[in-house]
Amino acid sequence: MQDYELSNGVIYRGDCLDGLRELAENSITLGFTSPPYFNAVNYEEHVEKVQGNTDHWEREEMSYDDYQDFLIDRFEEAFRVTKPGGHTIINISPVHWQDERVPLPFHLVGWMEDIGWKFKEDIIWEKPVAKDRRSGVLLQNPYPGYYYPSVVAEYILVFQKEADNNDKNNIYWDRTEEEKEKNQIDLDDYQGEKSKNVWKIRQVAPGENEHPAPFPRDLAKRVIELYSYQDDTVMDIFAGSGQTLLAAQDLDREFTGFETQQEYVEYAKDRIIDENSQMTLEDI
Ligand SMILES: C[S@@+](CC[C@H](N)C(=O)[O-])C[C@H]1O[C@@H](n2cnc3c(N)ncnc32)[C@H](O)[C@@H]1O
């Protein structure tokens, strides 16, 4: 597996399953990721399209059972490498497939619990703008049974690798007062939004990012700030354009990322190096 060592972390190009198997047990404090959505985007074809080799994307054929196994295998390994008390946080939403809305987040909770992850929180990420126009159906047919609300939200599901409070490996065990002080969370706007499980964060605008499905860096920042301390290692097993890795760098965390597509790895790496080199001495 090819790796790119950067000053705050590393990006591996390849299947995260292979990469995770190489990582030491109990070595990661926090995972934040958004998995490839079941049949929603074929990333290889997207890369081909960007390179001008094809003019269309096709949905990759994969059965739901195979997709379930794909996720379980990877989140099982993520469980092994996560430190006791650490979290994996997953951005996910129902997907449309063959005229059905597949309740992926709700299935995922069961799969994660079977692995050993403890379900902690369901946060709604609300986007100010809907991409689809489903609600138009009722406008054309204003009768019961024609209600298809436009989708403006995704889920942020929080899972923990539980540990005893007196387990010395627990990520919360030996935080010093100095560390707590340094990582104190700004509560100025806490009652405004952060205290609730609906987070309104603007999605990435078209053209702002070369990846077809990035989540906002502000979303990653909020997760990282709430669930890790400075110098902890934050991991994104489906790193895409590197939004989690950039957010980790912004917040002085170390990062580990995995991504299969060379194009996205290069893009993430270049952005990380570029922003790192723009940091002034005052930032350090
Ligand atoms: C939903 S996207 C993640 C986007 C990312 N959160 C961002 O903000 O740019 C999922 C990514 O997983 C990558 N991927 C798919 N299968 C993978 C695997 N087995 N290991 C690592 N990455 C994979 C895809 O190429 C895609 O870039």
UniProtKB/TrEMBL annotation:
Protein's UniProt keywords contain DNA damage: no
Q: Gene3D superfamilies from the xrefs? A: Vaccinia Virus protein VP39 (3.40.50.150)
Gene Ontology molecular-function annotations: DNA binding; N-methyltransferase activity; site-specific DNA-methyltransferase (cytosine-N4-specific) activity
Q: Does the keyword Transcription regulation apply?
A: no
Q: DNA methylase N-4/N-6 domain: from which residue to which, for each copy?
A: 30-269
Q: Which reaction does it catalyse?
A: a 2'-deoxycytidine in DNA + S-adenosyl-L-methionine = an N(4)-methyl-2'-deoxycytidine in DNA + S-adenosyl-L-homocysteine + H(+)
What does the record list as GO biological process?
Answer: DNA restriction-modification system; methylation
Identify the enzyme class. transferase
Keywords, in A-Z order = DNA-binding, Methyltransferase, Restriction system, S-adenosyl-L-methionine, Transferase
- Which InterPro entries does the UniProt entry name for this protein? DNA_methylase_N4/N6 (IPR002941), MeTrfase_CN4_CS (IPR017985), RM_Methyltransferase (IPR001091), SAM-dependent_MTases_sf (IPR029063)
Enzyme Commission number: 2.1.1.113
Q: Name one Pfam family in it.
A: N6_N4_Mtase
The family note in this entry says: Belongs to the N(4)/N(6)-methyltransferase family. N(4) subfamily.
State what protein this is by name.
Answer: Type II methyltransferase
